[in-house]
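Handout, tutorial session.
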Amino acid sequence: MKKKGLGKITIVLGMLLLAGAAQAKHIIGGVMTYECLGNDLYEFTLKVYRDCNCTDCADFDETAFIAVYNCSGSGCNGQSQNTPFLRINANLLSVNPVTAPDYPCLIPPDVCVQEGLYRFESTLPPSNLSYHVSYQRCCRNVTISNIFDPENTGATHSIEITPRAQQLCNSSPVFDEFPPTVICAGSPLEFDHSATDADGDQLVYSFCPPLQGGGPITDNPNLYNTCIGARPIPSCPPPYDPVTFLAPNYTALRPMGGNPVVDIDPNTGLITGTPTALGQFVVGVCVEEYRNGELLSRVFRDFQFNVARCDPTVVAQIASDEIVNNQEYVIVSCGENTVSFRNESFQQNFIDVWDWSFDIDGQMQSFSAWSPTISFPDTGTYLGKLILNPNTACGDTANIRVEIYPEIRADFSFEYDTCLAGPTLFTDASFSGSGQLTNWDWAFGDGQGSDQPNPLHIFQEPDNFPVTLEVTDINGCQDALTQTLAYFPIPELIVISPSAFTGCVPAQIFFDNLSFPISEAYDILWEFGDGGTDTVVSPTYTYNEPGTFTVTLDIVSPLGCQTDTTFNNLITILPSPVAGFSFLPEDPSNIRPTVNFLDESTGAVRWFYDFGTGQSANLPNPSYTFPDTGMFTVMQIVTHPSGCLDTLLKTIDIRPEVRYYIPNAFTPNSDGSNDEYVGAGLMEGASNFTLSIWNRWGEQVFETNDPFDGWNGRKYNTGKDVPAGVYMVLVTFNGPRGEPFEIKGVATVIR
């Protein structure tokens, strides 16, 4: 059934002409929602908000030019502004003021905001694509603080009806309240931005980027109605670009900053935080509607927060131990009748009068200091008040309850054997004037604790432990005491590793002191039997001579307790050989690849050579022919009669060598003997070879890059015979490792 009260609607299929419209630098927000009426009929509500305090600004459009596009995803990019599914002209139904917030004891500046209401209906047949219903207008307030170029940035207010929403005849959520037009800087913000959904679907809230729409052009009739004009007719197709925030201070997710940062609860839509910067801030809030985990719609509201200085309020607040029901400050004093109060009331600059008063022995006594110190006559409960600016609209009162209890004093003693490791007995000696302790909280300084009055504790390591006892009495009074316990007993049994050792010279041994308890705080002396000593807990020691050695360990605790142990014949060190060898020739090559090895070891009875090629020998003085050039690591392992080994590594370079020789004469007379001038030699691995021959006048007569290519006595081997005589020869090339070679000579032509 069609609803009453709708403005006149015109569905336009052709182009519309607009005349006499002004650029509207006044937009501060808007939102579009829809309701499914059944039979493919939808009712849309568009709310647009403007700043009515601005000068030289246009009013709301009497007609909102709406475009409906039928597309989804990337398909929207192909839509033309001139070919929407529908064009709709929606008339302005009403203009209503938005009520300014009422802050107790705060006077915000005068901010004027108006809401323009448009409502229209449209029949949209079922489609497997989304319907996008959009309205665009430029421009925003020039004074906006958090986006780039606001006076030339417009807005898009759009709603999408997804295929699934069409199938379910879904209606979009509707936001309940419009945000406060003014926020006081430095005051906590708490605004319920929640929405109501008629279908009872799940709603998820978030900050999201406001959308651009249209541009600042108003003076060019050919462009005014286009996507870059101030009022596109009709609105352009999606997707729509977001506004550009002035990052990094402001982003779509942090549009206002603040301390704490202004944020939105995704489940409730509650916006909280404390804005600190003054200015006007564009904010976008999205609510997504889900049914059975499927997204049905996404409603977007674009609005502006005005953060301003406000005449301040005052709040009476006192430093206290407890606040009861957010109404009464409770101060507890144990064993001390004199209480120093700390006044933490807000906005002290605006507090003209303050008065503390307490009922003491049935009489009200007043105190005028900002933070007074008051002596109460005895233990008991005393009620009072702190009144700020009494009898004014901006006053406040704090109720106070002072509880004076008897003294409590923590104390304890401990007992343990200072020389032998064992448990420590702690004995509580605390006192409470109430006569009853209720809780004991021990911290032994080693990460362990107890709640017993007189606990027994075993420390696992020696140290100076800060032991703390905190006690609580029946009144809730607490006191704590920390004492240092020096726990440094000596080990009952000295244990070390290794328990026996046999090795070869030189022998490096790690002596692991397994005794308990032990630490670097103890005086420790190791004697290794060869004159060497050390004083660390677990040393590493090297024996350089063979023999059998007795090790002793002496331990003295920081408290003067001493113990020692002797480990007879603990270490046996066997003699070792010394590997050594040389080789000839000292510069072997591919021409001389056979190397003779000469043993220079001492104390050896067996030899083993590894030549680095997979081949080896067991002779003391072997010979070996290397199969290739290159660097080879030769390893010699020698064995002593004791079975101890020694190893020596040496690197041998088998150098690649080249040899090249040129003759000094030839007889190019075609008699089959010495008819060609050609070089000879070993040239494997050579590169960049050039042989050139020149006559006495400096003219080149032959050149080749092949070391075994010859000259036949003709110019370049194809011309006329050169005259008999002497010719200069130059040969250059690089060796296998890049080393340069140059050979000069003569070629005598004999005819």
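The second record follows below. Compare its token runs with those of the first.
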Amino acid sequence: MNDLLLITGANSLLARHTIEALRGARHIRAVDVQISSVLPENVEARTGDLRDLNFVRAICEGVADVIHLAPLYTRLASDEATLDHATRGTFQLMDAAAKAGARRVVLGSTLALFADTPAEFRVDEGWRPRPTPHLDDLCAWLAELGVREMARSTQVSGVCLRLGQVVDDAVAHNRPFDPLWVHVDDAVAAIRAALQHATNGWFIVHVPSADSRARFEFTRTPEEFAFAPQRDFAGHTEVRSTPTIARPSPIPRRPSIHKVALLGAGGPLAAATTRELAPHYTLRLADIKPVEEILATGKPQSPGAPMPEIPHPPHEWRVMDVRDPAQVMSACEGVDAIINCTVLRSDPADAFLVNTLGAYNVMRAAVAHGIQRVVHTGPFMLGAHDRTGYDWDHDIVDDVPPRPGKEWVYMMSKYFGQEICRIFAEHYGMVVPALTFCQFVEPTTLYGPRIHPLTISWSDAARAIRCALEVAELPAPFEYFHIGADLPHGVFRNDKAKRLLGWQPRDRLEAHYRARRQSA
């Protein structure tokens, strides 16, 4: 049996101790963007970036198991690069590992995802994490989601170890006891147990210290997981006080919305939205190309799809790349609300840069400028044609958990971006309706033998965005909506958008689903 073990984030304290503990029993391939410490002679070292698809495929050749620590420890030159490494890198690693025949990924995550949970609560693995928009939380949580969804969609199992702050004796020496500490010996023992754990899919274990003063408890039974923490920090009599997580005051609601930044303005959905909003708002239309260039070189996405128009004052066109945080920050300055229609579907690198990092840049710009209202758009993520999705179901409501699947980087990258929006919205008290779509049509143009059960006309989609822009309030900071016509298929429901947004589709699209029989 192949025993090759791949360890990412190999430059970390935990990786070094894990390598030392396992090097006699396994053939180890240690990977990081740089490896500063000297590894044992029988350990194979590879330096490279998990965003490099060729590199990832090469390091996964022949791998049986993966210990994925990079989201916890690998930090690059910018927050954006680090987040891209944790999201795109994790997706590519899981995909390559699955295709190479790997059986298991052990993911290092963090108990800090529960840092603002009241101390008297006994948090276990069934609790929902509450990540903040801070980089370490985002990297850990989004990597969890990536591994979980890929484990759902492949034959690779995932064991997630949510660790306390890993320290060894040298790090802890002469320091007050931190209730979040876990000794590296216990963390390594948990990794050993995870490598032997018989799971089919996804399994989570919380790994605190054995100290009675620890912030979190170990709650798994020996029957569930063959591990229990052993190390305490009894020699540390002074205890460091756990800082309280201070949530910021909610971003205040603007008295009224006059000026709107519409990002991704060159696309057909944004073009339809521009026509809907232009008589009522001042629009800053932003896209990566000048509108004249789009009109000169582009063509409709599909028959009848809207094209952008050259704006006239008071509206303006701004050249902006959503991958560039400074350009996004500038494009959102001085507006009252943001509508994000940016999208890139197929390129493995740019899909994550636009759909994931772009959402991150937009939400950071909204916070920096005190903008409460952000309308986010994206694809529905419920249509995987296998047991991982909802393709077998009917009456699918908006709030079922997304299932992005593994086949298309578009879905996974948008999934990460959507989750970033949710985290920012909840943390800063924003109003962020996320409108999701599948197929757009022009009502009088026939497209083929059938339409998708979640189909909408361009004009009805634009009116839904306007309703999301204008709705006074929503039950939660982040709300997810299916936007589809009143079709008889009985698959996707749209009553939530009707109820909360006050939206009603006008185009019934009957010509698209009525039988078209030729007369004899």
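Points raised in discussion: Residues 259-512 form a domain with the Rossmann fold fold (CATH 3.40.50.720).
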